[in-house]
Every structure is written in structure tokens, then in C-alpha cells.
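Worked example 4.2. Below are the chains of a multi-component assembly; read each line carefully before continuing.
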Amino acid sequence: MREGEAFLDIRGAEKSFAGNRVLGGVDFGVNRGEFVSLLGPSGCGKTTLLRIVAGLLDADRGSVRLAGSEIGNLPTHKRGVGVVFQNYALFPHLSVADNVAFGLRAQRRPQADIAPTVAKFLDLVHLTEMAARPVRGLSGGQQQRVAVARALAVAPKLLLLDEPFSALDRKLRETMQIELKRLLRDVGITTVLVTHDQEEALVMSDRVAVMSRGAIEQFDRPDAIYLRPKTPFALGFVGHSTRIVGKAGASSDGTLAIETPVGRFFAAASFMGGAPVLLAIRPERIRINAADADANSLDAKLTELVFQGSKVHLHFTAGDAQTLLVEAAQIPPNLAVGDTARLSWSYSDTLIFPHDGTLQ
Amino acid sequence: MIAALKNRLARMDRIAILAVPALVYMIAIFAIPVAGLLLRSFSGPDGFTLAGYVSFLGDAFNWRVIGNTLRVAAITTLICLAIGYPTAVALSRARGFVQVALLVAIILPLSVGVVVKAFAWQIVLRRDGIVANILVGLGVWDTPQLLLFTETGLVVGAANLFLPFMILPIYSVLKLVDPNIQDAAATLGASPVYRFFKVALPLAMPGIVSGSSIVFSLAVSMYVIPSLLIGDRFQTLATLVGRSFLLMRNEQLGAVTASVLLALALAIVAFSSWAVRRKGDSR
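Applying the procedure described above to all two chains together yields the following C-alpha cells:
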């Protein structure tokens, strides 16, 4: 491998469909053994990037290197890149065991190795009893496990997961996410997950690449994405937030004043005075009627209270139309819809972004 | 439990009523005449006899006719399969306007009668027809030759007429196959050739079997097309049936020939579907 080159190393990947630019020069690197997610809304280019890595699409420009060699010109079947497809794409004419054995047979692995390898991977996904069954009758979760075993059996260098949980119901999805993460860590395979589900990306990944409009907005650890989003898009796509539009004021000692229609707030940031800014706060960072010194605060009226089991979402309105979202562990006592409360949050929890006049 | 079963049977019975009009129609205009034909083939002056079959199968000419019939039907089916399968694949991958245009191009010719198309082929296959002119122009032939009234002309024309009946069943199977399956096979390291034989072909097989059965059945029993494209010198079982009844007025020979044709066609279609299905199961 060249110096500074990642295990999967994509440089300047570009792709257009009929003049419509889907990927605009993406750089993307994944380390050996790492679990990375490509997270973004539909049409952001994440699936296009996955298909380029697998060789199912050709990039217009850019290089794709895997384990130190260029694979961008190789046909799919010579890349050693496994894929678990969204609908699993199992072979309907083959049994569970024959699905898992397909790649081994296609690659002409020694006959004596095939049965033990199939048995090993069926065991790994707890499908040993299902070996002889046709795949048609399997449940969604079982089909996914067959797809994973089938992809892993040929020992690919890299595994790509294309929205593999979207066909499962919510409860099963959470179980499968944890189970699959553990399995892939045990196998030690480098994995890229493509998903539009932020929770899935945060739960499963070592690092998350947030994509929008054919570009990677932020590529960081899950906690950093949530706590320190670099762009308004990353802020909006991952988690909830309250957003207040304002204007940068004076700054001193690394503390910036922001003038907004609902008051003056401070943040640990520096900005050019007079520039339009977007101020944001995560809902669980806002406290209700707390005696905070050195914190931003404002008075707001409770307009709605949404009970969600383990947590409560409280919607407030300040001024004419400024809404604020607060997340609390339980319904605060002595607070009813229509009451006014004092909301406060620390300077360091105040996120600041340059504002281009649009709110996503 | 018995009540539930009764209930189900009762419901099935009521739904089965929907098939009654078709059943009555088919019995009246198909089953009864065929039964009559079979009876006729076994009846002589003294009641039941096998004499018709014995004399039919004892005649070398009739064996040549059987050979002609099966050969022409088999070659026609193979031509339709070789052209129809790729077309069905293209049709199943096409989208939007292209797909509609392809479908119209395949289905619209069905609205032109067989006789009209057979006459059109007569013009195309003439010594001064377009095919002969092109082949001479390309230097394949030194002098224009007659394709009309040859076996080549017959199978080319027949394949053209029956092609939609091969394409449509294969297409209807292929359009239900998940396009990701081919990609999945590729990511598992399967070469294009391996993917074709181990994935594409097995998945298309139900369509190939029904398309081939339909085309073979049509080709083995075609009457107008050989009459117009090859003429009396070349007899098939179907033209022989026509001659027996219409020219020779030999009803027993006609009935025997028709029964032999029916038995052969049924046997071959049944055997080939069974063989393909068996191969599929033993994989």
C-alpha cells in the first residue's frame, strides 16, 4: 500500500446519470477491519458509491483502490468485494446451503473445502437446521442471515451492506443490528454500510460518513457527528435540534454573542461580526426552570407535550414563531401546556453554523 | 375441523363454476370431435380394428412424413428459442418507451393473419426476392436462388410467425426475476458464463419450457404455412391429414394420421417438460 493510503481508498470519484451529477469528486477511506457507514437521504449518492466499489457501476472519474491495488477497472467477479443487497437477492432456485455454497463453487474452490465452509458459515448465522430448505419460505431475518453467510463464505476483502435492515420490522431490526455487528467484528472483516437510518449508522459504526448531494459532509465517529456536527445538514440529518437564526455580534475571549429575534445568546465560537448565523441546540441539552449561571436562557410557552415512553418531547414557543424542542427523562412536575417556563443551555452546547438563508 | 373442510370444499365448488363456460365450450367443439376422430381411426368395416395404424406405420412414405414434421417443428422451435431468449432478456431489462415499443413490435404482427404473412414470405423468398438479392449483393451467392419451396424457407417463415409465442412466456418469467440476483452472483465471484448457466438459464427455464412447448405444438401441426411456403412435394402430418380428408376422401387415413400427430406432439411436449423439471430438481 502507498503511504497514507487507506485499506479501501477512493479518490475523486465522480458519476453523472444523463448529465445529472450524482457524485461530485468524493474522497473516502476505510481502514482495515473498520465498520463505516455511508449515511444520507435517498438520492445523496451513497448507493451509487457502493455500486462503484462493487464494480456494478463504473465511475466517470476517480480511483478505487482496495488493499493497495487499483480495482476500478476490474469486473465485479474479480474484485473480492462482497455485497448484502437490500432485498437480499437470494437465488430462489437453490436451497439455503446451495446459496451459501454458490460463490465457493463459482470460484472453483477445492471440492473438499466447500461442505465444511458452508457448514461453518451456516453455524455462524444459526441456520444449520435450515440447510436443506428452499430459500422461498424463509422469514426476512433468516433471509438476511443467508445473504450474510453467502457473502462471507467466499472470504471477501471487503463487505458492503446495502440497507440490509430496511425489510425487517423495528424490533427484529434492532436485534439483527447488534447480532450482525458482533458477527462481523468476530470475522474481522472491513465493512461499509449504506443506510438512510441515522440510528442504525450510529449504533453499528466505528465511523459515519454523512452524505448529501453527492458529497461527504462529515466523516467522523458517531458521537462526534452527533455532538459536533460540522454542517447544518449533518446537524439536521442526525438527531433532533432547535434552530434559531441570528446575526453574529461581538466576540471576546472565544465567546461570540449572537443577536436573535428572541434574545442575545453566547457560544464558544468566533465569527465575523454581522454575518448571518444559525444557532442550534440538541433537545436533551436544554434544561427547564434550572438555576443556571453563565448559560443562555429564554422564556417560552409550552405548546405540546409528547410522551414517548422512556422520554418526553416538549415543544415550546418563544416570541412570535420561534419553536424550541426539549427532551426530558420525565414530564416535569408543575408544568402544563400553556405554562411559561425558563429554558437554559450552556454556552458550550450552543452550536453555531454559517447561515445561507435557507433552513433544511 | 370437518366443518372447516366442508366449508372450504363448498367455497372451491362455487369458484369452480367460473370454469364451466370454458369447459362446456371446449367439450363441445374440441373434446367430442377429437374423441370422434380417435374412434374413427379405430373403426373398420367389421367394427374395432388396428388395420389403419398397421398400414399407416407400415408405409415408409409415412415415416418420412413423420420425420419431416418433427424435424421442421424442432428446427423452428430452436430458431425461435435462439432469437426469442435474447429478445425476452432485452424486453425484461428495457424501461419506459423502449419497452412499450418492443412489446408493440412483438404483439402487433399477431394481428396480421397467417395467410397474409405466408404470402408476404412468398414474395420475400422468391428468386428475385429481397433475401436472394441481398445474398447475391454480399457475394454469398453467385447467382440468385429460390428459397421459396425449400425446407429452409419453410422454417424461416414458420419461425417468424411463431416467434412471439416464444418471447412472451420467457419475458413473463424474466420480468419477475429480481435484477439484483445477477449482480449478487457477480459479487460472489461468478464469471459471466457461470452466471448464465447457473443463474440466468435455470431461472428462465419455466418460460423456456412453456415457450418451446407452444411453438413446437404450433409448428408440428401447422397447415397453411407449409402449404404456401413449400407446397405439395413436401408433406407433413398436418398436410397429409388435409389431403386425406379433402383430396383422397380417405377418412380412416386422415383420422389415423391426425391421431398419430396428436400423440407425437403430446408425448414430446410432456416428455421435454418432465425432463427439464427433473433436471431442475436433481440440482
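Take a moment to check your reading of the output against the notes. Residues 17 and 23 of chain B are 10 Å apart (CA to CA). The first helix of chain B runs from residue 2 to 16.
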